[in-house]
Amino acid sequence: MAKKGQTVQLQTELNTDEEWEKYLQKPGLLVIDVYSDWCGPCAGMQANLKKIKVEIGGDTLQLAVAKCDGITDLERFRGTSEPTWMLVAGGKMVNFMYGANAPKLTQLITEEIRIQKLVDEGSYTRENVMEVTDRAPDEAKRWEAIQSKLAEEEALEDAKRKQEVHQRLLKESDAILENLGNLGVMVVLPHARDKYLEVMKDLMNEAGLVISISEKVNLTRDIMEEMLYFSDQKAEHLNFEDNPKKPTMGVTLKRSSEHLPGNVIDDVVLQVIYGNSRKHPGDDDSPSRKFLKTDPDDRIFIGLWAPPNARCKAIALKLLFPSLAKAYKLPEFKHVPLHVAMAFEAFKTNDLMELSKEYPGGVMRYGFFDSDEPIKAQLIAKTVEEFESRSTPVTYEEKIILQVSKEDKECFEAFLKVGPSYRSLNVEVGEKDCSFLFPPGYDAPPKKEQEVSKKSRKKKNKIIHQITVNKDGEEIIETMVADKTSTEETEELKTDIKDEGEENFDEEEDFDDEEDELILEDTEIERAGEEKATSPMVE
């Protein structure tokens, strides 16, 4: 027994695989609070658990807190924020519960203590126990729901990507057809190169077709698949040999005269190569059939091929004759990864920043906000430094919100495990969320307060002394003050002759307000007389 005044530790702390394995061998019922490093164990339930142990469990009940970050068997719980309770007996999991519902947990533990005492007495044998690495029914149900939702999101994302590709190819093929639609395309495989003109010469003359361009092309499976994008024909059904010594030829055809009868050039080319069927593999007596080649494994290789429709032809022109079609290709666009918004308590910032280092490019943008609701959230800070430099302490209401790319599934799931308080439902919602949170211009660097270097100007006042000499020869001095800066040019002061026989002249002085010193400058005097002086006289 513990001595009087000595604290009894009722909960065992588990941090490593070794501690975990050793603890599982303990007798009785083990109630384990599984937690993540950033979240911590459920402190609100500790007093209740200790009460159960003292009043009901005794030596039958053992309590522990297990940090899943360092325990392999608990890896699936890493990053979770919800209280997780695992009940173990005899090294096997006998029950499991999520949440901090004290009455429910108390009832669950009380019942398991009763059963464990019967087991210890030998009057009862537990059934339906699980390995600690297995998912409990509630856990499995939740996991399946999450996986189902993720699968739906992935299907939506895949459809969105395909739609983007489709729209781009439509626009690109339209532009090419508008400018190069009068050309036909034919592909001549290596084994047909030597004799295709001999076989097709008469047919081409009859159809009014002439060769416009003939050049070597690099035909690959991927290129063939892209050329057949707008067709039901599949590239895997077309075998073609690769002969580095005699590469494939790409040929463009045109009509020898615009006034020749017949349909559009694409139909004419298909007719010449495949015959009346106008499709692969062609009529029995067609050039296409004549150049089919069978290898020892009974694989059939094509010798001639033509795009099955106009849009396929446009893609063929783009891929096989890049110099010809480059003027009509759409400009390369900056691909924006599909993404969602994820909001977390600001207390998780350090963990999130460390996690982002493991997935470069995974976090496209981030910021600190006063709410995790994208429409209502107000920006607090754009950087960790700006957020932490505030004088106010961090609150539970403050969130760090990330724009997370979904291009890397592993990256997305890693952030998901941290337990966001909010996550965009899918990428379409994510796009809208991020448009609210990270509007255009968000990435612009903050304007630094620049010290504008200006030439120091000392404000000076213009002091004008007006000296008047009256008829008696007495000088009367009148002083007037006017604002003036030191950068102003000295203006010439001129006086008017006011009364006959009087002499007027001005003296101009500057003085510095800051030093309260009167700076006498050049004084210009203009004496009155019968005639105005033609030039000032400077003293």
Structure description:
This protein has 539 residues and is α+β, with helices and mostly antiparallel strands. It has four domains: 11-134, Glutaredoxin, CATH 3.40.30.10; 166-328, 2-Layer Sandwich (Alpha-Beta Plaits); 339-437, Alpha-Beta Plaits (2-Layer Sandwich); 459-538, no CATH class. It is 31% helix and 23% strand. The chain is built from 14 helices and 22 strands. It has helices at 17-24, 46-57, 102-121, 137-180, 196-207, 221-227, 265-274, 287-290, 310-320, 322-325, 349-358, 384-388, 409-417, 427-437, and strands at residues 11-14, 29-35, 61-67, 84-89, 92-98, 184-188, 209-217, 248-255, 293-294, 300-301, 304-305, 339-345, 363-369, 379-381, 399-405, 422-423, 459-469, 475-485, 503-512, 517-520, 524-525, 537-538. The strands form six sheets. Strands 1-3-2-4-5 form a five-stranded mixed beta sheet, with helices on both faces. Strands 14-13-15-12-16 form a five-stranded antiparallel beta sheet, sandwiched between helices. Helix 2 (46-57) packs parallel to helix 3, helix 4 (137-180) crosses helix 9 and helix 5 (196-207) packs across helix 7. The chain starts with 10 loop residues before the first strand and ends with a strand. The model is unreliable at 1-8, 451-459 and 484-539 (pLDDT under 50).
